[in-house]
Amino acid sequence: MTAVAAKPAAGGAMNPTAMAIGLVLMLVIIGACWKIAPGLGLMALIGMIIGGVLIGFGTHFVPVGGAPAAMGQAPGIATGVPMLAAGAGLAGLFGGAWAAEQGLVVAFVTGAVGGGLMMAITCMMVSFIYVFGMGIPAASGKVKVDPITGDTQPEFKSQGTEGHGLPFTSFVGGVIGGLLAGGGGTLIYLMLLDLYKATLPGMMNATESQIMPIAISAAGIFAVGMFLVNAVLTAYNITGTIEGPHDPKFKRWPRAVVASAVASALCGFVAILIVVM
Amino acid sequence: MESIVFGIGITALTGALATVAGAAEDTESNIGSQGDPNSQVQLAPQMGYLHRIFNKAVAGEPPAYGLWCALGAGLAWAFMAMQINAVLAIVLGCVLAVFVQGVYATTAYVGRTASLKKFGQPVYVDILKSMTTVTMAHAFVAIFCTVTLCYLMNAALGHPFPLPLLGLLWGIALGAAGSAVGNPYYGKERQYQNQKFGAGVPIAQSGNIVRYAEAGERNSLDNGFFTAKLGGPASGVCFGLIVFLELWRTVIFERISAGWGAIIVGILIILIFTVIDRYIEVWARKTYGPYAAPVKEASS
Q1: CA B166 to each of CA A48, A94, A148, A271, B79: distance values in angstroms, whole numbers, following the listed order
Q2: B122 at A interface, C-beta within 8 A
Q3: Partners of B217 in the beta sheet?
Q4: pLDDT at B53 over 90
């Protein structure tokens, strides 16, 4: 039995009570932050929650086929959900951090484009290897017609498989996922960097230029950590493989968004506590 | 102007290093069978197909390479802080990181294969001896190239992140690119070489991997030899393009319109790759044709 044949079980069910408890928990954490670090700390936490939500939501767009895709048994990219999202998002974070001096908006968009660029190249090369290396055309297993191009899918599905390769909608989903994940990761980094730049000189009795290496390193490490937290949470929500925005599993995103918001609030709160307590 | 020319040179060098790193990474992961196709290597003995394939997939390629590249970069950074020459420091850091990779490969192979004892799968000591060193050699090339390009980004191009953090970021991206592009070629095209070309592996065939070579039983060196011809170079081109284009758009266009130049160029590159991808998809549909007659609307 492979992951393809595994049933989604109760994975798609929403639990309103759990989501409500999650939102209350997030509000409690925001309240605690407002009490301990009003102003810049609270702004940083809200920015990190938005960044985490962007990562969690964006990861749903990324077409991931896991092990079945590596055998041409299912569409998508043949690797894990959090791994691919992390690869794209961290490539975006690299660009965003480089552009941090040019302001929040430019750095955020630069990070987003960096993530989208990584996914565009990767998805194109995946199509290349499927078509020219393995002689397999793309076919979706979840829809009969590609929602963007209108190409029919079932007749291009080889016998005994759930589809294979990357249909165009999956490619677009991958790029959108990379854009959101790259932007989200960059936003978390920028929020923390601003906070650390403002608070570390006082804490360490040093100038801003002296604390910059520490501020950049700490903000970068927290951004990477929070990125992985949100990407892995989303992987649990997806349970295995997803073809992209046209996959029925995509409709599960509200649950992951709430979970990402709560997890980002908690992780962000810890990242703020190390400089305000 | 001189700084831009210098930046372009460094960008080209990092792109070349990334291409070599991507190719070495994919070949290493295929010889070690670390990608997603390893699910079949693990499954085969359970279906009655005993084999001599290496088996070290206790972590995905991205986190594993994130660890090894961060380790190599961190150690190199520490050696440089001890006033050791940068080239020597990077080599020493990468050698130590590769020893960790060797320990990882050894324990992973022994652990994963021992777990298949009840299905009769032996732990082959000769496989352990001959494959581990080859994966270590390929891992050294991949880690050394990645750490070197991270050093160039930090020291020559002035990226603010410290070397270990860059090693972690680009190690994860290297593993993501290598596994995304290289895995299907290793999984479908090599492990299931006995299946029809130009079609996916039927789910019912899961676990029935090819176990025999031209002479004797197939081992993972045969797999690395095969995938190094296309899957490895394609992974290298993928990672090389990612690194090169990300740096190129920043180095040349960052100063135009206060950063918006690099963003617009990035969006244009994404659109170009979108067009190429669509062309490949349409080409495949027209050239290969459907597997079955189109399903009529009324019957669907």
Answers
A1: 21, 8, 37, 20, 16
A2: no
A3: B212
A4: yes
Q: What is the pLDDT of residues B90-132, one digit of tens each?
A: 999 999 999 999 999 999 999 999 999 999 999 999 999 999 9
* B39 touching A (Cβ < 8 Å): yes
Burial class (CB in 10 A: 0-12, 13-18, 19+), A225: middle
pLDDT of residue B299: 47
Low-confidence stretches of chain A (pLDDT < 70) are 1-12
A205 assigned to some structural domain? no
In angstroms, the CA B163 to CA B151 distance is 6
Angle, CA of B181, B184 and B186, to the nearest 5°: 100
Place B139 in a pLDDT band, splitting at 50, 70 and 90.
very high
Chain B residue numbers with beta carbons less than 8 Å from the beta carbon of A68 are 203
User: A164 is in which domain, residue-wise?
Assistant: 57-190+226-262
pLDDT at residue A225, rounded to an integer? 92
Would you say B65 and B171 are in contact if contact means Cβ atoms under 8 Å apart?
Answer: yes
Tokens for B128, please give them: 């352990």
- Which residues in chain A (69-128) have CB-CB distances under 8 A to chain B? 69-73, 77-80, 83-84, 86-88, 90-91, 93-95, 97-100, 102-103, 106-107, 109-110, 113-114, 116-118, 120-128
Residues 140-179 of B with CB under 8 A from A: 159-162, 165-166, 168-170, 172-173, 175-177, 179
How does pLDDT run across A101-138, given as a tens digit for each residue?
Answer: 889 999 999 999 999 999 999 999 999 999 999 999 99
The Cα B59–Cα A79 span in angstroms is 12
Residue A164, in any domain of the structure:
yes
Q: What is the pLDDT of residues B250-283, one digit of tens each?
A: 999 988 888 899 999 999 999 999 999 999 999 9
Distance between CA atoms of residues B245 and A94, nearest Å = 13
Q: Confirm whether A208 is domain-assigned.
A: no
In chain B, what are the domain boundaries? 2-253, 260-289
ipTM over 0.90: yes
Q: What is the pLDDT of residue A83?
A: 79
| Residue-averaged pLDDT of chain B | 92
Contacts of A129 in chain B (CB under 8 A): 181-182, 184-185, 230-231, 234
CB contact under 8 A, B269 and A136: no
- Judge whether A50 is closer than 8 Å to chain B, CB to CB: no
Question: For helices B125-151 and B220-227, what crossing angle results, to 10°?
Answer: 40
pLDDT of residue A7: 53
Q: Would A219 be classed as within a structural domain?
A: no
